């Protein structure tokens, strides 16, 4: 055969392949415009959830690969509402550096990874925050031996911090505001920052105070370290979804409020079956005995019942993962119900 | 290649058409893929409402950087400024790393060829051990195991000359210049210039008359004694501020971060092992007859090495040495693993996360490394031409 | 010697008589020749001996004699009155060993990983043993059968009764080997194509190849991985967005193919022109000439360099750590943060174990490359 002919053949084949590739691209784009996240999740049979993976109490797998934590529970609650099965979640461990890309690119359906709701993130990253499920604030941890009682005494101290977070910005702001000089040492992951602090590379370690309690457990001697009283920032942590799928955002948002409402109404994992027989209209609407609230989300009307049955109410999830029932022992504080002096306020289901 | 074949004209014409068609097809495919990628990216970004463009460059950075060679403050400096800080840190660690790796690499490479059995085998062991363990692992080892084992601030080791060493880094006295010091600098520069001229003249004289001239002591006088006299004459316009331990950290002095030290150590030691192999191969490439000829001329081994072997070996060594330098520069990006604020850590780390503009940031980062690589290759090629030109 | 006078190029007096040559045979002869041949030599030898005496016994003590070999938590490795300076904590490695090998891969499915290791070992043995039977079949096995088999084995094939294991659960040595193997399997064919393109006389083909190769070789692997992990998802339609490990694999494969292209190009350049001309004289068209005559020879002479590139690739797999993938080194890093094992010696032990693993693999491969090289050199001389 002549070489020219072979070339022509190859060229023809390449041209065909190219045409197919282009067609695929266009087709895929057309398909995207009409698909909703819920549909994709249902077709897939599993919810892709972006979680932390390194933060005890919030999101961390054990050596067998079972994920537990407060943020993990939230994804399980969504899965329970959709599939009536809290195990139909695939957890994708994300570091701070790639969490938004993972959400933007569609790798995960929901980002439940102690992420602070800020205006900039809400408006420029192409994501939407659903509801604040943990009111947090940035704090400092120091070694007791340093005899520091207040963050204001940290002038000239070295502080280990994770890069690319609001924490890094708040730290610089706080020191500047109080005319203190700062030596920050930044690390790509929180693990590295904690290890550096533990080996005395820094005098102090800073992150959200929930994270401080969690990381304290990872230190060689947790009791030799204290968390300082100052909270230097507002860190409303919220699950996030991609912009542009409002129904999906509603599902995520109301999953949270259903859990809070359940706690307000005294419905928990153990009594939820009895509560089905309750006369209280609020409870009847919550559990789907009355009304079609779940159906308007694209789910079933017993969606909230499933969440409470499989995962529990807000308070149960809190205590089990980060509160008194966990090694972290974080007080409810701002996360108590509004009726008990906190900020968690369930929106009415009606 | 096949195109140089003699074949009937018609078949040649067909082949030419085929070639052109192939190339056109390739252009269309590559262009198409690029277009599809850009189109997708634009669409994905627009759909996701992600900001794009380089507007972020002049926004306030807001984060602190632990090592800055130029003025930088979290509150006022921009992302653009942070970029320059990171780039300079990359260049600093690469530049010093290249010098140390070269010196160490040449020493080990020559030691591997030593006639002393122990020396050559120790050098060989060094090369094998270092070359076969990943750089990242070595870096983590230096940073997390060796430097973390240094004493705490309170137990700092005092070094002779007023330095301090602890797990926060190495602290050296900072020189403080008073007016009058510029005369000392001028004297030093003059001394260096005069020594270079003297050396050129001595070379030429040796070429002409065959008489070598010892210029070491004269050069010593010019470069050391002359500035020293100027220093005393202007009334010693130099003082040092010594580092002292404060409540948390060391105050004052020049600070060398442990992250910097670990990266420098790992890069130099790793690259030196490769340079040693390059040097060994280069020296082995010089025919043995050259050594024998030098001996026959009565040159001492050290003189033979310096004037006969190394200049010839250098021509073989320079191209692979260049690629080792490039590797070192590229490998300096591993800084991100230990928190040394280099270009990747600051720019592709903090800035990328704070702005969320992955495409722009990664593109800029890659462009910078490409540029550095090109400039380094260019310089080394110029040096290669310079030493090749001596061939007669 | 007599030539020490300041400015003598020529002797003017007869040279001094040299002493009779020293004994060269026997142990003392060897010692004198190799260790104590001159005053400088003696000094060097002494320095080396001092260095060895200073360095080796503490290392031995730390890693072997004083090491803790068993135990369930850090108590085993802490300082005690009997052992004020404890040695390496090998108990830590023992407890975490299966995590280092498999990551979070489900316990009951780990036989699949073991089977993959065996299948891979067979493939490597087949290709690396130069006189193995049917090495052409070996290549088919390694480049076509093995990838398909491994994919089904590792990530799952529900139709064959193998449940899906998401790549997020993979970890440790498994990931390291997968990344390295995919790197070599993908980069060799790509590299050959790129090398041919770069040597092509068609300007456009050559230009594209040169641009790609020089671009990739000019940037650090980390930035390529960053690109693959944060930019790639934006470049493809959302539906096709690949998973995290796959993205890293694409990055590694592209990166390795540029380096492989240069190695293959070196091999192509080493083939004498006569071979091209002979093939053309036989009337072979371009692709058949390359496939039947040139490439087999070029790949053979360049095999040592291919192995060396692979060693580089194997070490570079550690970088996927930085984009958040649990390779072997990352599992070491994760385990060493475990507070139950927090001791001053845990990190060193973990790193020593990792270094041992990488050293054995890389050194083995480099010895192999050297053997092939000497063998080829011998064949060439004949």
Describe what this molecule looks like in 3D.
The complex is a heterotrimer of chains A (350), B (392) and C (382). Chain A has helices at residues 3-34, 37-44, 70-83, 99-104, 119-124, 166-177, 190-198, 209-216, 246-264, 272-275, 281-286, 303-310, 314-321, and strands spanning 47-51, 60-61, 67-68, 89-93, 110-111, 127-129, 134-136, 138-143, 158-162, 183-187, 204-208, 225-227, 235-237, 240-242. With 350 residues, chain A is α/β, with parallel strands linked by helices. In chain A, helix 3 packs across helix 9. Mean pLDDT of chain A is 84; it is low at 14-35. Chain B is an alpha+beta fold. In chain B, strand 6 and strand 7 form a beta hairpin. In chain B, helix 3 packs across helix 7 (258-285). The longest helix of chain B is centred in the N-terminal third of the chain and has 39 residues, at 9-47. The two termini of chain B are 34 Å apart. Mean pLDDT of chain B is 85; it is low at 1-6. Chain C is an all-alpha fold and 382 residues long. Chain C folds into two domains: 26-76 and 83-90, no CATH class; 97-105 and 165-381, MetI-like (MetI-like fold). Helix content of chain C is 67%, strand content 0%. At the A-C interface, helix 1, strand 4 and helix 7 of A face helix 8 and helix 13 of C.
Q: How would you summarize this macromolecular structure in one to three sentences?
A:
Chain A is built from 13 helices and 14 strands.
